[in-house]
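Question: what's this shape?

___
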Amino acid sequence: MRQVGSVLWPKLRVLQVYGANTGVGKTIFSSILCRAFQKRFEKVHYLKPVSTGPVEEADDRHLTILSKNIKARCLYQFADPAYSDQDIQAAVYDELRSYSTGDGSIAIVETAGGVLSPAPSGSSQADLYRPLRLPVILVGDHQLGGIGTTISAWESLRIRGYDVKSVGLFAESHYDNHSYLKDYFAERAVHAFSLPPPPERHPDSSKDAVEMQKYYDAAASLHEVDTFADMFLSAHDKRILALKSMPSEAVEAIWHPFMQHSERSASTITAIDSAYGDYFQTHTTHSQSPQGKTASNPKAQVEPSILKPAFDASASWWTQGLGHGNPELALTAAHAAGRYGHVMFASAIHEPALQLAQTLLKRMDNPRLSKVFYTDNGSAGMEVAVKMGIRAAAVRYGWDAKGDEVKILGLKNSYHGDTIGTMDASEPSVYNQKEPWYTGRGHWLDFPTVKMSKGRWRVEPAGSEVAHAEAKTFERLDDIFDFESRQDDARAYGQYLDKHLAELSQRRVKFGALILEPIILGAGGMLFADPLFQRCLVEAARAYQNTPLKPGHPIHTTSSSKHNDLDWAGMPVIFDEIFTGLYRLGRFSAASFLDVHPDVVANAKLLTGGLLPLCTTTASRSVFDAFVSEDKTDALLHGHSYTAHPVGCSVANKSLEIMGRLHGSEGWDGYRQLWQGEGNNGVAHASRQQPGIWSMWSEAFVKAISHRSQVDSVFALGSVLAISLKDADGQGYASKAAWKLRDKLLVGSQGEDWVVHSRVLGNVWYAMGAMTTEREVVEALEERIFAAIE
């Protein structure tokens, strides 16, 4: 699988010429700049990736005839058979790479038509070349209406992440667009300059050529052109210097999260220039690939690239769902920013927040849920969830907040965030036990885990106290989710949990809520919990006998919460779906795997497709009613300055819309088919509305990895892959067993045009794709991973 990256070589300077519209003079500007750069470089190249006109009128032909010693080339004619964007990007990258030899050269890459003119595939010019991230000069429109066209073109480039180094204009006196636009762009710190317009075209082609030669010679020597050329060359050098110096400067200025700084150095920090699709464009001490030779000149040594694409295997801390630099999300964010800016949400409503709340309530398919509370991030959203659950229980059971000790029921190795309340909801671990304020107000259970080992799916108990101490094997992952066929396991789990919780009830332990990460416990070590055990735990928690009500205390605070099937019992059930929800595991709701309806659900991460921070905490009416009274101090007095930010809500709506289209189309069918087969009844007969058990990672690959001698176990579900490596010194977060695999994939092998950027959790190396990652990309990753685990 070929993946091209951003174009950046130290001694090859590349400038892309965009036009605000068709016929604004891109080729004339290109010709002038080529001549100007000839005063500075021996080799000047002109590249027209796609030409739209007749061959005899092609822009590269114009450059060849009218320019001296300019190496001009066109790669494709628009009328040629259709080429994909990836084909054109690869061809441009390879052509430019062939120029990166010797002591230094420069290349001008001219686009076709305007910024949003179509490419052969139908995408816009701006989207076609975005992965290459070339610095741009925009040729403005000097004609009637050109001011609006030029500004619109600049905004279109800017919103896609381009660096527009300058705007060039013809000094046309009739409309005088250049005067206005110079001032306009100066206010936005964008350099703009104007040149005299070219001479009128002469009917005699030979005389016309002579006049254009004179014009080019004069224009190339103008002060404005020299100023731009020097500014552009300086910016190229500054960009490289910044990339190289950022890691060392970060050591001085940045306090990084989840990093022991005694082990940090500039060599351990990756500088990221940009990101697009599934890939970061990275610079590290390992970024320089081995020198090679070009096809056109086998003896020439190609300059190593400063940047290398790195697959974002951690999905940017599990947030990335629709690809970096997604233009739909960027445009949505820009529209919302322009329409609203920010709206204080107290006693107010705006359309994006209302639409998002209604969408979540509908698509979660949970009749208990009725109210959506907005926060900024997963930790804050879970902090609110803890408050909701404990208050609901305290109101119902009449607990004294000052005198009664209220605990959380959960699973060992849980992680629900870094705020004080969410830390207290998790057992002592590396994340919280050294915090002076941490008290660990909870009771956490061991639980059976799902994994593949030596080609067999297994459900293994975490401790001898858990029912059936012997591991059980299953033919297919789907069989583990077939609860009907696992009645014996359900009875064993139920008996164990009933006995365990009955003992706690006899000791009068007060539980304010059950909090679970459904299916996969993320930060605790990518642990795949037996879904049947979690289902049985929810049932046991709802049957739990909490401290009896105080005499005369009502069960409910308002008449709208009459006791019914939608009310909570025992203790409120909170699902932390920050990581596992919203299609990360292949379904909109992770709760659907357990076939239970929690009372509170928190969602973040994929909510905005990885673009903006936003979290929702959705609660049942009965939980909501616990905060309703005539006393304002009984309200949920929690909020953030940016609660329900309109930009974040708008992007979330668009993100869910796009993922819904993927889910309802054939987009993921190829992945589903990888897990179909005889006996896999959940997938073979599943509809897209209620899909079975599947993963982006093929079952064949998962089985092959499980046989590697260094691998303890592996699992895959939805977009998630987790590989537990053997460690003689013990497993857990402090283990360094996965570091070698992480570093090996980041360095890559000789000749590879991309690497893998990942993070580890102790002895666990994990990876996940975006919801838009294509199968051929995953296949290439599977090959890299398999080869790296030697």
Residues 327-663 form a domain with the Aspartate Aminotransferase; domain 2 fold (CATH 3.40.640.10).
